Amino acid sequence: MKSKFSLRHLLDNNQVVLILSVLAAITLWALYAFWLKPEITRTILVPVNTVPATEAVGSLGLQVAEVQANEVWVTITGNRLEVTAVEAKDIEVVLDVSPVTGPQKYTLKVNAKNVSDKAFFIQSCKPDTIDVQFSPTATTSLAVEMDFAGLSSPDGYKIETTSISPSQITISGPESEIARVARCAVIANFDVPLTTTQSLTQDILLLDKDGQVVNSMYITKSADTAAVIIPVKKIMTLPVSISFINVPPEFPLDDLYYTFSADEIEVAAPEEIISKYSEIPLGFIDFKTFDPAETYVFNLESVLPAALTNIGDVQTVQVSFNSDEFTSVELNVGTFQIINKPVDYNVSLATTQLRGVRIIGPADDIKDLAAGDVVVQVDISERQDLQPGRFQMPVKVFVPNKGLMWAYGNYTVDVVVRER
Question: Whole-model pTM?
Fold first, then answer.
């Protein structure tokens, strides 16, 4: 047999009665709130916006220096759904600066307005007046200092001049507030010695004469942060070296003795750069103009790679040779050698003798040197766009199989080219 539904039995169930009671209460509250009393009143704490006041008195050379209260209670009214959704940002509270004529304290009326698209009305502000101090506007420039604690580098490294940008800022605000500022600085603490360059972005802080931070909502800065670069370089001592060009064929360069006025140079550079260098090349000595009686001077400022910084006291390096060991002789040379002749031309020399060729070498060996020991070599491949005719060409002059001997100077011969 099926049981019959009974309202009486249902109401005897305490849980059902509880649920029905809650639903009834919610229904009655909704009926009261949205039908019988749809409008409500609410009070919100809203900050006072002093920017419009400062802008309004700017033409008088004044600025807000102190405000008695930075927030006021604003009472609003309106539809319950709208009013409950209102936030402080939906209301702007400003000051009526119409009484202001000079630098002093004024009691100013507070005005509030709805700056949102929500439908509500402003009833009142509490307090409805605020004491405001106005001060003459002052502007000053300050160098941005660097207050770094623990800044150091380990042995073998060097911290170079730190750069900061901007290096100077301008601050503006009430004269009384600006007077509190003694200097400005970026502050950083370093726990370990630095081995690499550091790039930082730090807040620029305003400090009083005791080094305490000046926090003022009325002071504006031309920049709030500064970019700081702390260059850190590794120090190394590198040997110097010299190279030679136009070295005669089979010349025993290793037997040529020379000395440096400074064998090593102390330099610095970022670690990833300086690790690529094993020596400092000073430059070249050209054998065509090489005279061992001369001292060759190399200016480090000119020859040092741009990535390296000279941190020592050596500015120039002199390269000297044992000039007492060498002497020279002038010969008229008639032994010629033409190389790299073209297959489609006949090449000959109009020059039959190269006169006054200066040969330098050890004094003990050069006294026995004959003109036939010297070779004049003409390399036709060095002539671009070879055409029939007569022209001059540079030559190489060398003394084969004679050890430390070479020709000093530049020489040319007349070459004749004819078609076959």
Answer: 0.65
